[in-house]
Sequence to fold (140 residues):
Amino acid sequence: MILQLLLAAFLGGLIGVEREALRRAAGLKTYILVCVGCALFTIVSYAGFKEFVGTTSFDPSRIAAGILTGIGFIGAGTILRRENKIEGVTTAAGLWVTSAIGVAVGLKFYVLAIFTALLSLFVLTILRSAEYKIEEKKDE
Fold:
């Protein structure tokens, strides 16, 4: 379980470094904490309450639903409207996907978590340059 948390910290950190480099509202520490927290909640719900499944109305998947609600509040706090521009949507989406990565690690879906982190980095870095080129063409 400790190795799962370390993996979550590493994967959250990969995305957080990119956000930190751009000086976004949520950076390295935030992404690490979100990913580790989600992994921990998932581990606790999966392993800690396993004995109650089938004996009560307890449903461990409710923990994941609670995670989504909490991340929604954090993400909403990163979205700002300045003048006629909305900022922070990518940061909110990054936190959302990072929470899903944490859940995947908590459920031991390691390949899926690693792939998603790498795919997210691709979207945030490589596609950013494509986005800038599209914006430049619009301005011409």
